[in-house]
Each structure stands twice: as structure tokens, then as C-alpha cells.
Amino acid sequence: MYGACTRSAGPCAPSLSGAAGVTDARALPVQVPLPMVNWVPLRNVAGTVFESLTDEQVLEELDFTEFEAQFKAKQSKDPLLKIQGRKKKKETITVMETNRAKNLVITARRIGMEHDFLKETILATDLTELLPEHAELLLNFIPTEEEISNLEKHSHHKDRLDEAERFMFEMLKVERYESRLRIIAYIGFFDEILLTALPQVEAVISACDGLLGSKSFHKLLEIILAFGNYMNSAKRGSAFGTLYMRITLVPNSRILNPSTCTTICVLIGPSTC
Question: Is 25 helix (H, G, I), strand (E, B) or coil?
């Protein structure tokens, strides 16, 4: 049921169950380090399903040799190598803020392109290789003037630049880097932008059609034109119309008599003065 028994490999482990339902904390003769099982052990199994269970027979019959070979835990690295690795990390050059650098590294790895190939792709505006959403992500990491200045100072030590800094350093070699990324993102999302903009455009057209057919609006324009001609007649002469007219551009001049009344008030109605 449990596999071939190999008692010759060593003594079988005794049962973990003890008297009065209390378990004994004993180590089993494991030959190699194995991964941990994430559970909470019961110190007292009295009154539980485990009270009548025992693993003694299973431990005696199972051969864990193959199991240990398959699930052997990875050995920790030599402490000396860790120290050397930390020393090497300290020697790298960083010019970016920590979180910004970390997010750039995540983005670069997500794109998954070598620096040279990515540069060629951006220069060619190749949407088949660089997805629009990836271009949009890269736009969040356009080098600042300070970052550019600091990277230029360390250009002779580019091999010592940290991962994020090296990526940014290489992308700076792309002519009009930001503009090209924006073009890729715009082309890629054009259909989506169009679908979003169409209802807004249609709403504006509908509003314009409504105003063109409104007698009240026509009357308002006549009144504004009359006031404008009256106010400009002394210096500019009269006009039969204007190329464009915005209510917000109507002179909001105050009358000489100390008052809160303005030309806007007059257009709206005498009662507002």
C-alpha cells in the first residue's frame, strides 16, 4: 500500500503518538534537508480524530529515498559568497530614487527585450514588437534633467550602473525617445480613443445644432452685437458680425457711477444691477 519497505536502510522511526494523547516532539532520521510543511501541530490530540491514529506502520513501510531525492531543499549559499555579493552591490552606481528604480526594473523585465533590440524597435515604431501598453508604461520613466545629468557624469562607468540606471542610460541613446513612445502609445490606443471621443464629439455637434435653431440664442447674439458696436463705434466702428463670440469675452466693465452693475448685468437684465 505504501511502497517497498527498506528496513536495511536504517532504523524505522517510532510513532509520534504518546500516552494520554500527548505527542512526543522527536526528530525523524531524515537524510537530506527537506522543505517545511506549513501547519500548526497539535500537542494534545485527545478528543480529536488523531487520537486513534498512528503513523508508525506508515513510517515502517515507506521508503523515503526517492522522495528525498525529488524534494531535497536547496542548500543555502556560502556565507562568503553572500558577503561578496553584498560588496558588489555596494559598488554599483545608482542615481534614481529607490522605488522609481524598482518599478523601472519591473517594467523592463515585463517587456523582456534586450536593450539594443528595444532601442531598434522604438526607432522603427514597431507596434508588433513593442505593445502600446508597454510604451505607456515606459512613459512613466522618462529621465528627468537631474537623472540625465547624473548619468552623464557616470557614462565612463556604465558597466557599474545598477540595472535601472543602465536601462535608462541605454534608452537615452534613442533620438526623441519620449516622442516616439507617445506615438506608439497613441497609434496603439487610437481606436479606443476614437470610441471614447465620438460620443463627446456627437454631443458637441448636437449642442451646436440646438443653438443654431434657437431663436432665443439668436436674439442674445443680436443684443451682444448691438452693445459691442455701441461701445466700439467711437474708435473701431460698427460690425455686422464677428468671427467668433464667447460670452466670457464680453467686456465686464463697470460704470463710472460707484456700483456693482457691469455690462454683463445689463445683458442679463436690469434687475440684476
Answer: coil
Asked whether the beta carbons of 171 and 177 are under 8 A apart, the reply is yes
pLDDT 10s digits, 98-109: 999 999 999 999
User: How many residues in total does the chain contain?
Assistant: 273
The residues facing 93 across adjacent strands are 161
Query: Residue 72: which region, alpha, beta or left (left: phi > 0; alpha: psi -120 to 50)?
Result: beta
Cα–Cα distances (Å) from 115 to 159, 167, 170, 187, in that order, read 14, 7, 7, 23
Query: What stretches of the chain show up as alpha helix (H) in DSSP?
Result: 56-61, 65-70, 79-91, 98-111, 115-123, 132-138, 145-153, 163-171, 177-188, 190-212, 215-232, 263-268
The answer to whether the pTM exceeds 0.70 is no
Note every long-range contact of 127-131, with CB atoms under 8 Å and residues 24 or more positions apart, other chains counting: 127/184, 127/187, 127/188, 130/184, 131/188
Show Cβ contacts of residue 67 under 8 Å, excluding neighbours closer than 6 positions.
none
User: Grid coordinates standing for 134?
Assistant: 508597454
Task: Note the pLDDT tens digit of each residue in 253-268.
Answer: 554 555 555 655 655 5
Whole-angstrom CA distances from 257 to 254, 260, 261 are: 8, 9, 9
Reduced to 3 states (helix: H, G, I; strand: E, B; else coil), residue 103 is helix
